[in-house]
Task: inverse folding
């Protein structure tokens, strides 16, 4: 198990790399999509939040894919700071909206994704995280509900009143000139079929390129959001995704907070089940109180999830990927994002040190049961 930090696009600078290294990380997971582009209600000093139904921002340039030279340069800059570039998280809606929507540009956009995967392989970046979701992350609210009245995200009731408008997908606007109107609703099986076709076409290319594509579950894990179905909103549904193409390269970006918010199953058992199969590429770690549609994000060391147990299960199952903090509540200081991340990383490193230390064998025996 290695410990990393997730960095948004505007954080891909030496200052943030040094911060990650100083906090004790060996790896980084980078976002190349600028979620904050023209986002009215989505400040850059926070995780992308948006309003309950407001998109995060405007998607990128559909004609411009990330080049091998750009990816290699990024990798070099990160390695210069003594870190590894472990993963790129999320595809740009501009590059694959019609794969999600089964739209007229689907064939062209499947080629986009294959090209991105091949280029990542050439640049030596081992993992691509993605989120096969129409509504994406919507319906959340911010309240001072974490310890010490820290501002944290949460949810209070379903989010189906406002369907997705045309030109918007996965929290982002990909077509600012789209005709007025709403996205027509589809069935859950139609959406599974779109995912299946995507995996059947892309995973063989990922295998050739030596890249793992890794799925985030639906966050928040509601059966529907904005009047559209969702795919992975209970722990068992991850298995269906994995079984579509049984390959190490068809993997998971396992989000502990999201799985803990699911109404069925148990997050500790799910971590055990999927890490034992060797199918988790990397982990988002965050704690939470409650389950959908009523939950609150919390600091790592409070909340419903037993983080020592999660990390000990990963250790016992020889998880060889990266654990990164997901989101944290905003700490009261001039650098709330940094403080939250450093606090979470410190906690993870302490548990990791304990698990790897021979002086704590008795603790290991106890937690491994
Ligand atoms: Mn997550």
Result:
């Amino acid at each position: 198990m290695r410990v990393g930090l997730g960095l948004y696009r505007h954080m891909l600078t030496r200052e943030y790399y040094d911060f990650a290294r100083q906090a004790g990380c060996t790896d980084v997971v980078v976002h190349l999509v600028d979620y904050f582009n023209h986002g009215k209600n989505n400040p850059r000093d926070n995780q992308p939040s948006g309003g309950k139904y407001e998109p995060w921002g405007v998607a990128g340039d559909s004609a411009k894919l990330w080049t091998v030279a750009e990816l290699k340069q990024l990798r070099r800059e990160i390695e210069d700071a003594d870190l590894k570039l472990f993963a790129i998280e999320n595809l740009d809606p501009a590059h694959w909206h019609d794969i999600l929507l089964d739209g007229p540009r689907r064939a062209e956009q499947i080629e986009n994704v294959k090209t991105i995967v091949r280029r990542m392989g050439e640049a030596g970046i081992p993992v691509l995280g993605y989120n096969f979701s129409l509504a994406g992350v919507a319906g959340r609210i911010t309240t001072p509900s974490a310890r010490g009245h820290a501002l944290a995200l949460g949810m209070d009731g379903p989010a189906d009143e406002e369907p997705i408008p045309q030109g918007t997908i996965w929290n982002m606007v990909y077509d600012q000139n789209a005709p007025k109107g709403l996205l027509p609703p589809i069935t859950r099986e139609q959406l599974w079929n779109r995912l299946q076709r995507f995996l059947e076409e892309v995973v063989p290319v990922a295998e050739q390129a030596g890249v793992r594509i890794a799925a985030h579950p639906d966050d928040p894990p509601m059966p529907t959001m904005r009047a559209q179905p969702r795919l992975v909103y209970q722990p068992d549904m991850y298995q269906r995704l994995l079984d579509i193409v049984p390959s190490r390269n068809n993997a998971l970006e396992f989000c502990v907070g999201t799985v803990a918010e699911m109404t069925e199953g148990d997050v500790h058992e799910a971590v055990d089940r999927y890490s034992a199969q060797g199918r988790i590429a990397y982990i988002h770690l965050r704690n939470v109180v409650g389950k959908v549609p009523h939950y609150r994000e919390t600091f790592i060391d409070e909340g419903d999830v037993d983080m020592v147990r999660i990390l000990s299960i990963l250790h016992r199952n020889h998880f060889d990927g990266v654990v990164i903090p997901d989101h944290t509540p905003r700490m009261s200081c001039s650098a709330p994002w940094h403080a939250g991340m450093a606090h979470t990383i410190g906690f993870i490193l302490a548990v990791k040190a304990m698990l790897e230390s021979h002086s704590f064998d008795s603790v290991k025996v106890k937690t491994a049961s």
Residues 216, 219, 255, 258, 284, 326 surround manganese (II) ion (CB under 6 Å).
